[in-house]
Amino acid sequence: MYSRLVVRLQPAPGQSSLEFLRLAGDPLRWQLLRELARSDRRVQELTGLTGRPQNLVSYHLGQLRSAGLVSARRSSADGRDAYYRVDLPKFGTLLAETGRAVHPGLQLTAGVAGGASGPPGVVVARLLFLCTGNSARSQMAEALAVARSQGRVAAASAGSHPKPLHANTVRVMRERGIDLGSRRSKRLSLFAARQFDHVITLCDKVREVCPEFPGHPGYIHWSVPDPAAIGDDDEATLPVFRQTADDVETRVTYLLAGLGTLPGRGPS
Asked: Does the annotation mark 58 as catalytic?
């Protein structure tokens, strides 16, 4: 009886970084990544933004999805459609690994840089977060934006069909050191005449009915599922609320960094 010697070939040093550069280096894929870094988008929107045919855009989105840089979820407004988003933390990790592969002295930080402009409490951006019920997602985003920016942003939230603040929203925010016990849900129409620098929709349904706000704010969409939609039992839905809070906090952190309102973390 013969024994077989199995030789497992290890990838060449830097091979994964080379593959990442090849993937992101395509001009169209790079443009798609940049657009999705700003806002979740549907294929039809991406074809309009890039000026390329839908079959080509879909092909390159498939390449990015296979690499784990982009993901998609069905729209809660139209189940036949899907929203695409970019995984910014993974993108940052790959960039850091690529730097180290070129030279170990290139210690890029896989994370979000700080460096806020202005002292704490001085408002430099006005944000409005919207979802349908204003009972979970937009409330989380409003509270996190104010807390994590140390008051450098003025944030508000509202819903197209407000519902009472969900008990699990209060619970998961308390776990993050933020007390929402006195918060109440608000109707979108209360803010229709106010000016904001950015209006962020966290719900596919509310995006479809979002009005035009005065002052031409920047519009951003985050396609975040409603954590309360899976059931009525608070204990059963608590893990989903925690996942939603993690997702919203990651998105808020990158938004604040892009606005220059994220305080520096200092040396590690």
From this structure: no
